[in-house]
What we know:
This protein has 631 residues and is an alpha/beta fold. The protein has 22 helices and 22 strands. It is 37% helix and 22% strand. α7 runs antiparallel to α8 and α8 crosses α9.
Amino acid sequence: MLSSTDNPRLPTQKSAEAVDLSASEILPLEKQQGNCSAASDVVWETDADLRMVSRRNIDDREIRDEWTNSGQDLIGKTALEMIGADPANAHALAAHWADLLARKPFRGFVHRTVKPDGSIVWLEANGDPMFSQDGAFLGYRGITRDITHRRADDPQIAFLAAHDPLTGLPNRELFLRVLEQALAELRPGTFLAVLILDLDNFRVINEAMGHSVGDDLLRAVSQRLSACIRHRDTVARVDGDEFAIVQVDLERPDEAAAFAERISQTIYEPYQIRGHFLMPTATMGIAVAPGNGVDAAQLLRNADIAQRSAKHSLNRECRGGWRFYEPEMGARVEERNTLETELRHALVRGELELYYQPFYNVATRNACAFEALLRWHHPTRGMVLPDQFISMAEETGLIVPIGEWILLEACREAMKWPSHISVSVNLSPVQFRSGSLVDSVKNALRESGLQGSRLELEITESVLMQDSDVSFAALHRLRALGCRISMDDFGTGYSSLSYLRRFPFDKIKIDRSFIQDLNRYGGTEIIHAIATLGASLRLATTAEGVETKEQFSIVRAEGCTEVQGYLFSEPRPAKDLPALLHPFPEDSFFWLPDCPPPGVAPPSMAPPDPAAESLLVDVPGDSDVFRGEAI
């Protein structure tokens, strides 16, 4: 269902189909077309944010809002607030949303509103975009009319009121009516199952391949689901990529599990859509009556809770699978929903903070960069670590505004450091898909004044695997800003080497799992191979997760140029960073940042002595690559 967060500021270019009508022109035009015969027809206008600015009767008199569900004036409200608040209008709004995004005229937008007395009024809206002389989008102007009187006599309108216009399946309203009837007819000793099915990562398909591919996939999935059910069962599309199925006359609850397994296999069969080869998975939740409830709305909600519990499973082992509803799931889902709501407010309330963990140059033992790591100071939960909320932020899209804040805050903080110290920021695949990442980096550099060469951006293979062409194009644009690009978690994916050939990375970070496995067979040899590869490609190699002196000795001996880990420092708030500029001691670790080791002068904010930088050790495989250069 669309919400107010789906109403971005949209491009201002003029559509080829757009018409720029004055107030004196739109009424005669509509009358000529025979569309304004009723005195109750309403002429309206919105601003560029689709917010209502005027509503008048056809005879140009001010009107009362007898169509609203609250009796309050609609002036100042957005289209989503007026129409999208009613779930019954969600699919109609989605069907016309592409035209609104493209600033095109729309026709036959049928939706409903509920009057204060509870009666339903069906309305039809037609609108045209308005543009200024220089082509800037100003808003929409159009006419809305009451079609309640002819809805009952129009089979097509009656069908659309109960069915999804994209797939032709029953919509949520009709599904609930069918479910209520099935529950009323439930015989003793038999069971009824409701399955909620959600396509995994459907948003990725929409964003990477376009809404036309996503729509075709939804149609294809609906056809397969319809072919799987029995004639007495019902399948419906109840939300964007969410389907519901009711199975009746079951002898045992586990029959629903067998059906869910069959659905999973059916959905996973390949799709060939507009030149794309797709193999989607679906996550399902199952609620069974009478055990999980005998009320239609409650049963549907419990199935949805089971689906969300499976989807948000900690280890994600249920992606592409299913789960039965259990009473304790409701509490877990409610907890997650609460956390999501609180995270939405955390950025505004100033509850987020960046901690920093240093990278040290192996040869000079000087700090050369700090990695920005997010922390959430929750007012009641205390310190919340990223592994408890980052995945949720990515799934909900919150990572985009949070990521913009991280970039700007990290760059501002780096401006307080010596000029030879860089700041490293992790990027999410969602930020790449948003299309706004490059602009966010530009803005952070511009507002902070930081040189692009002092900003290091860390990505993982998952960024490149989802839409490599788009991702590589963005990386090249970021590189053009002077930013350094680092491949994080190197060696854990399937195509790390091929990506190194396609893009000139500046650094590879050896995943901490390899550091932890140094004492296992081949552990040291793997580190040596990666360090040698980095040297031959003129890349810095960072060993992350170094926690013991033995691990440090090995990665240094095998040629790693940088180290990071709790052996040297845990992530610290910005106020502690000056103390971390000390070279770490050769013979002692775990020293307190606010208590310099014996014999070490107080921290200096000046760059290290250039003479010391020339003492860099030779790197195996290319003795001259890093000599005299601070990595």
